[in-house]
């Protein structure tokens, strides 16, 4: 533990948070994917940042690009408690015009390359490159220790998944010592692991390097006109071929709520996956423990009153069953089942929410019935709206996923209202 602490004191976390996340459709029209809400209070990026802080890493940088205002504001409000005099900080690194470089980051590696001078000023030995758009709990100190003990040029965090599910990932072919012998991007026939041919090691997009080694590699890559300046496409395959690349298994550093609990990791990159991961939190014992005080998920906490439930009549009762209801919510004569309500959701009499994920500041007016939905921030649900009972009608106005989850935004509701008015005049 003491050795891990010394390593983390001389390490930094560099979070790549510039990607839109287009598979989340309209949820990322106004915010980048790492800034999307999750779990009632948090944002997706809070998991990577909390993992770093809980691992003992107090130097962090977040590289932003696509529609970054919401993300930057969240980091300023929720992660401003670091003290420079204690040699700890979180820096925001937006894509910007620097010298003769183009303004935008050209790839994941270029996002670090354009900030070499800033990383140099941190005076670190190791850098951990993180994706800012996954939900998981992980002790990065264990991965860092393993990297140093193996004398690796790069260590890559890997999920153990059923072999044919790995076709959507970068896949590691490893020897019996977990040294990577091949890095295969989305292979049609993924290689199995040495101990189980039915399992494969899929990249988590987490890389540990010594900073001097990576610095030299980035400078060389920046001069290569044939490079896409991407870790997965360019740098990692080169190290696998010419250096020492090691796989770190997530199973060994995952922070679990119980010793026999599964290793929890989710890519909530589609509307279906986002809905399911949030709804899973309403289970009796969810696989992701947000109540763990030993490994908390830090975030910006608004100052709001407790949730309130009002009315107690046979057909007008404010009640929530198998649900999570955040602060500031007012459940007024509404039946809420198997749902997750974010901050300051206000519902009105005779409404029903069933398997609903409702983002902050939503108002649900009287007699609305909403089933298997995701409702974007700030939406005002009109009185009597019914969603989740007629998929054909739902698809006419809203986005309905392959698995029948309906995404509702204010723009969609406004278009619906305009369409109904046109129809009534014709």
TrEMBL record:
<dbReference type="InterPro" id="IPR029044">
    <property type="entry name" value="Nucleotide-diphossugar_trans"/>
</dbReference>
<keyword id="KW-0808">Transferase</keyword>
<comment type="pathway">
    <text>Glycan biosynthesis; glycogen biosynthesis.</text>
</comment>
<keyword id="KW-0320">Glycogen biosynthesis</keyword>
<protein>
    <recommendedName>
        <fullName>Glucose-1-phosphate adenylyltransferase</fullName>
        <ecNumber>2.7.7.27</ecNumber>
    </recommendedName>
</protein>
<dbReference type="InterPro" id="IPR005835">
    <property type="entry name" value="NTP_transferase_dom"/>
</dbReference>
<keyword id="KW-0548">Nucleotidyltransferase</keyword>
<comment type="subunit">
    <text>Homotetramer.</text>
</comment>
<keyword id="KW-0321">Glycogen metabolism</keyword>
<dbReference type="InterPro" id="IPR056818">
    <property type="entry name" value="GlmU/GlgC-like_hexapep"/>
</dbReference>
<feature type="binding site">
    <location>
        <begin position="185"/>
        <end position="186"/>
    </location>
    <ligand>
        <name>alpha-D-glucose 1-phosphate</name>
    </ligand>
</feature>
<comment type="similarity">
    <text>Belongs to the bacterial/plant glucose-1-phosphate adenylyltransferase family.</text>
</comment>
<keyword id="KW-0119">Carbohydrate metabolism</keyword>
<dbReference type="GO" id="GO:0005524">
    <property type="term" value="F:ATP binding"/>
</dbReference>
<dbReference type="Pfam" id="PF24894">
    <property type="entry name" value="Hexapep_GlmU"/>
</dbReference>
<dbReference type="InterPro" id="IPR011004">
    <property type="entry name" value="Trimer_LpxA-like_sf"/>
</dbReference>
<dbReference type="GO" id="GO:0008878">
    <property type="term" value="F:glucose-1-phosphate adenylyltransferase activity"/>
</dbReference>
<dbReference type="InterPro" id="IPR005836">
    <property type="entry name" value="ADP_Glu_pyroP_CS"/>
</dbReference>
<comment type="function">
    <text>Involved in the biosynthesis of ADP-glucose, a building block required for the elongation reactions to produce glycogen. Catalyzes the reaction between ATP and alpha-D-glucose 1-phosphate (G1P) to produce pyrophosphate and ADP-Glc.</text>
</comment>
<keyword id="KW-0547">Nucleotide-binding</keyword>
<keyword id="KW-0067">ATP-binding</keyword>
<feature type="site" description="Could play a key role in the communication between the regulatory and the substrate sites">
    <location>
        <position position="65"/>
    </location>
</feature>
<feature type="binding site">
    <location>
        <position position="203"/>
    </location>
    <ligand>
        <name>alpha-D-glucose 1-phosphate</name>
    </ligand>
</feature>
<dbReference type="InterPro" id="IPR023049">
    <property type="entry name" value="GlgC_bac"/>
</dbReference>
<feature type="binding site">
    <location>
        <position position="105"/>
    </location>
    <ligand>
        <name>alpha-D-glucose 1-phosphate</name>
    </ligand>
</feature>
<feature type="domain" description="Glucose-1-phosphate adenylyltransferase/Bifunctional protein GlmU-like C-terminal hexapeptide">
    <location>
        <begin position="305"/>
        <end position="408"/>
    </location>
</feature>
<feature type="domain" description="Nucleotidyl transferase">
    <location>
        <begin position="13"/>
        <end position="282"/>
    </location>
</feature>
<feature type="binding site">
    <location>
        <position position="170"/>
    </location>
    <ligand>
        <name>alpha-D-glucose 1-phosphate</name>
    </ligand>
</feature>
<feature type="site" description="Could play a key role in the communication between the regulatory and the substrate sites">
    <location>
        <position position="104"/>
    </location>
</feature>
<dbReference type="GO" id="GO:0005978">
    <property type="term" value="P:glycogen biosynthetic process"/>
</dbReference>
<dbReference type="InterPro" id="IPR011831">
    <property type="entry name" value="ADP-Glc_PPase"/>
</dbReference>
<dbReference type="Pfam" id="PF00483">
    <property type="entry name" value="NTP_transferase"/>
</dbReference>
């Amino acid at each position: 533990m003491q050795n891990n602490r010394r390593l983390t004191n001389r390490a930094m976390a560099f979070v790549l948070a510039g990607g839109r996340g287009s598979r989340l459709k309209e949820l990322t029209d106004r915010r980048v994917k790492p800034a999307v809400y999750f779990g009632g209070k948090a944002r997706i990026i809070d998991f990577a940042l909390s993992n770093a802080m809980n691992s003992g890493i107090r130097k962090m940088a977040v590289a932003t690009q696509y529609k970054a205002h919401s993300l930057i504001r969240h980091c300023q409000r929720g992660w401003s408690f670091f003290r420079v005099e204690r040699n700890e900080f979180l820096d925001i690194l937006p894509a910007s015009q620097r010298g003769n470089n183009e303004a935008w980051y050209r790839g994941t590696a270029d996002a670090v390359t354009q900030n070499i001078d800033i990383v140099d000023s941190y005076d670190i030995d190791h850098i951990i490159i993180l994706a800012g758009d996954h939900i998981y709990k992980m002790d990065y100190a264990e991965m860092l220790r393993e990297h140093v003990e193996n004398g690796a040029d790069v260590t890559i965090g890997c999920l153990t998944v059923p072999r044919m599910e790995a076709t959507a990932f970068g896949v590691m072919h490893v020897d019996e010592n977990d040294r990577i012998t091949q890095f295969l991007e989305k292979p049609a026939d993924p290689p199995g692991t040495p101990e189980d041919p039915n399992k494969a090691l899929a990249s988590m997009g987490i890389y540990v390097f010594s900073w001097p080694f990576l610095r030299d590699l980035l400078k060389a890559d920046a001069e290569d006109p044939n490079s896409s300046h991407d870790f997965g496409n360019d740098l990692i395959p080169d190290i696998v071929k010419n250096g020492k690349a090691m796989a770190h298994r997530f199973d060994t550093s995952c922070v679990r709520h119980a010793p026999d609990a599964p290793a929890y990791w989710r890519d909530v990159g589609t509307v279906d996956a986002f809905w399911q991961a949030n709804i899973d939190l309403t289970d009796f014992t969810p696989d992701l423990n947000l109540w763990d005080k030993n490994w908390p998920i830090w975030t910006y906490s608004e100052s709001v009153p407790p949730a309130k439930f009002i009315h107690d009549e046979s057909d007008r009762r404010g009640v929530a069953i198998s649900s999570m209801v955040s602060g500031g919510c007012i459940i007024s004569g509404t039946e809420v089942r198997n749902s997750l309500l974010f901050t300051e959701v206000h519902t009105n009499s005779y409404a029903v929410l069933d398997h609903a994920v409702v983002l902050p500041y939503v108002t649900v007016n009287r007699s609305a019935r909403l089933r298997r939905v995701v409702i974007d921030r700030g939406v005002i649900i009109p009185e009597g709206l019914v969603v989740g009972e007629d998929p054909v009608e739902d698809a006419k106005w809203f986005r309905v996923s392959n698995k029948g989850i309906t995404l509702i935004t204010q723009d969609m509701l406004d278009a619906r209202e305009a369409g109904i008015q046109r129809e009534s005049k014709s």
